[in-house]
What does this fold into?
Amino acid sequence: MEDCLFCKIVKKEINSKILYEDEEVLAFLDLDQTPTGHTLVIPKKHFTDYMELDEKTLWKMFEVAKKLQGPLMEKLEKPASTLLMNYGDAQAIKHVHMHIMPHVFHEKKSLNIDEVYDKVKDEF
It folds into this structure.
């Protein structure tokens, strides 16, 4: 879609802190680093929500999340992590995306996006 923020990131029309990319999937740090290390995994092809996804693409997103989750937790010293996919009105951007959110339960302070990227960029 022309106006989709995530499609623009896929096309490199908008700069982002990319942690992983292959032919099907892109993973990048969310600008709002709450929690620290908040990463989004998206398919490069536009799907509005996960109900539109084919199983191959959905599993690919999970595979990439699994690959990133451990190193993000380790490098950022976070003992926990949450995977999340919103649906419907809960989606701020209508391009299916998975959130990887490394955290310490009840953590208040976050690093900024550049600090996080510098810590993790060489892992993937």
Observations:
- The chain has one domain: 5-123.
- Strands lie at 18-21, 25-29, 39-43, 80-84, 98-103.
